[in-house]
Design brief:
The structure holds two protein chains of two kinds.
Chain A (H helix, E strand, L loop, with lengths): L1 E8 L6 H9 L3 E7 L9 E9 L5 H10 L3 E7 L4 E9 L6 H9 L4 E9 L7 E9 L2 H18 L2 E5 L1
Antiparallel strand pairs in A: 1-3, 1-4, 2-3, 5-7, 5-8, 6-7
Chain B lengths: L1 E5 L3 H12 L1 H8 L3 E6 L4 E3 L6 H10 L8 H7 L4 E4 L11 H10 L3 E4 L8 H10 L4 E2 L11 H7 L5 E7 L2 H13 L3 H10 L8 H4 L2 H15 L8 E3 L7 H9 L2 E9 L4 E9 L10 E8 L4 E7 L3 H15 L7
Parallel strand pairs in B: 1-2, 1-4, 4-5, 5-6, 8-10
Antiparallel strand pairs in B: 2-3, 7-9, 7-11, 9-10, 11-12
The chains are: A alpha+beta, B alpha/beta.
Chain lengths: 162, 329
């Protein structure tokens, strides 16, 4: 597993420069998140990409992406092997979604690898399907506990898996 | 066997009907049995020679029972062998059920109950029963007709029960499985359940997980050897669930059910994400339980969690157990 943050210019045809090498090397894209609200002074948009890929091919992948002129801000290999899914119900966006996700991501042993949000109407509670990934079962439980705590403080309801 | 029936609502009447209808069959296990007293919240009838149950049922159909004896008088003064205590649950202080049961146990009279009030004072009742060489049987308190207590204690004897998780409230399961199928708001499905008589006018006991929590405490104490109380249960109800939650869950291969779970570390009733192909993803008013054991691995039971005849089934099985003809005590 590899997660990286690349900076892309805000014009068509940029993302493909990253996705092509991944596909060529047999990688499986887990998630792609555009962080439009973190646009850089040079007008670039940070994009966070999580990929499942053969460990041995990571160095080659980084070289291939850089050779296409893409700026890789950071990347790290994560040996995240266990995942779980949860549902969040409540005012997810208006309670600073970023800080909710960061609470898990900054642990270093777990991260949010997938998120899908459905917003029925303005001011009505929205629903998010979240996939967490961690290095082992114990850390996964720990990350669920952290997420629950953050959500409790924000009045967001967490529906845990069995 | 001389029986007293305390409480004559839907469960009590269901038991009485089975005792009439299956008399020849049940006599093989219970011997020649007679019901010497039947009471409800307002009155009661008794006959040491044995009541005519058909007549008692007819009296109840026409209104309440005549005021010839009260529940308290029966449990304190009358001579009989087994008390079938089927008054309504009171999770606040357990009354009047707890007093009925304690009075019987003190006198060495066996008690068979469907009253979840035992969750309030489980250990105390068990000690009282042991001290007076009596038995308290409570299969009917959890999961209705679904075998749980005797399944774990008799059929899985020798196993350590590591954890249990399951669906212990048919009303919530009905609401959630309808929300899943129709993707309609909670309030709308709750109204439908009320009209069908599946939910009560005040559905708090069910939808806030109180009923499931009480059952969880009983199961955890009885088969896992815990000393848990109702207050120990972390509870989250189902009323905040939205159609969107089901939509998103379904798109990812999950559904949502109210799950009661007990481990050595915690007791919890809360809505949980369940893979659509999991045995606990059941529909309608059914109940289900997964019992995790050290030797047998996981054992699943699914069955009807409520209903007059269904609850009577659990009570009759306890009665037969007490008669010792099956050697299950």
């Amino acid at each position: 597993m590899l997660t990286m943050v690349v900076e892309l210019e805000d014009k068509p045809g940029q993302l493909i420069k990253v996705l092509e090498p991944i596909s060529k090397l047999g990688g499986n894209i887990i998630s792609v998140t555009h962080r439009r609200d973190e646009i850089t002074p040079l007008g670039r948009i940070p994009v966070r990409i999580a990929v499942q890929i053969d460990e041995k091919k990571i160095d080659q992948l980084i070289r291939e992406i850089e050779s296409r002129g893409v700026c890789i801000r950071s990347y790290n290999r994560v040996k995240h092997t266990v995942t779980t899914s949860l549902l969040l119900i409540g005012h997810i966006i208006h309670t600073d979604l970023r800080s909710t996700v960061d609470a898990v991501d900054k642990t270093g042993f777990a991260e949010v690898v997938e998120m899908r949000i459905v917003m029925p109407e303005l001011n009505k509670p929205s629903t998010a399907f979240i996939k967490l990934s961690a290095v082992n079962d114990e850390k996964l439980r720990e990350s669920v506990r952290i997420l629950k705590e953050v959500c409790k403080a924000k009045g967001i309801k967490v529906i845990e898996p069995l | 066997m001389r029986i007293a029936i305390i409480g004559f609502g839907s469960v009590g009447r269901g038991v009485a009907e089975v005792l009439i209808e299956k008399r020849d069959y049940l006599k093989r296990y219970l011997g020649d049995y007679k019901v010497v007293a039947v009471t409800d919240s307002k009155g009661g009838v008794f006959d040491e020679e044995g009541l005519n149950l058909r007549e008692v049922l007819e009296m109840k159909r026409r209104g309440s029972l005549p005021k010839r004896i009260t529940s308290i008088e029966v449990v304190r003064e009358l001579d009989f062998d087994v008390c079938i205590e089927v008054t309504p649950t009171n999770i606040e202080n357990g009354e009047p059920g707890l007093t009925h049961m304690k009075e019987c146990l003190k006198r060495g009279i066996d008690v068979v109950t469907s009253n979840k009030s035992i969750a309030v004072a489980f250990k105390e009742l068990m000690k009282l029963a042991e001290k007076n060489n009596a038995h308290l049987m409570f299969e009917a308190t959890v999961g209705g007709a679904m075998p749980v207590i005797k399944l774990a204690k008799v059929d899985l004897a020798g196993n350590e029960i590591i954890s249990i998780k399951g669906i212990l409230n048919g009303t919530c399961n009905y609401i959630l499985s309808r929300m899943e199928k129709e993707l309609l708001p909670y309030e709308m499905i709750l109204e439908e359940a009320k009209e069908l008589g599946i939910a009560e006018t005040d559905p708090t006991y069910d939808v806030e997980g109180i009923d499931a929590g009480a059952k969880l405490v009983i199961i955890a104490n009885a088969i896992m050897g815990l000393d848990a109380k109702f207050e120990d249960v972390e509870r989250v109800g189902i009323s905040d669930l939205t159609p969107e939650a089901f939509k998103v869950a379904l798109e990812n291969g999950y559904t949502i059910r109210l799950i009661a779970e007990a481990t050595r570390d915690y007791l919890r009733v809360s809505p949980r994400l369940i893979p659509l192909n999991h045995p606990l993803a059941i529909y309608g008013t059914l109940n289900a339980l997964e019992i995790e054991t050290d030797l047998a691995g996981e054992v699943f039971v699914i069955g009807r969690g409520a209903g007059s005849k269904e609850t009577a089934s659990a009570i009759i099985s306890d009665l037969i157990c007490l008669s010792k003809s099956l050697r299950c005590l």
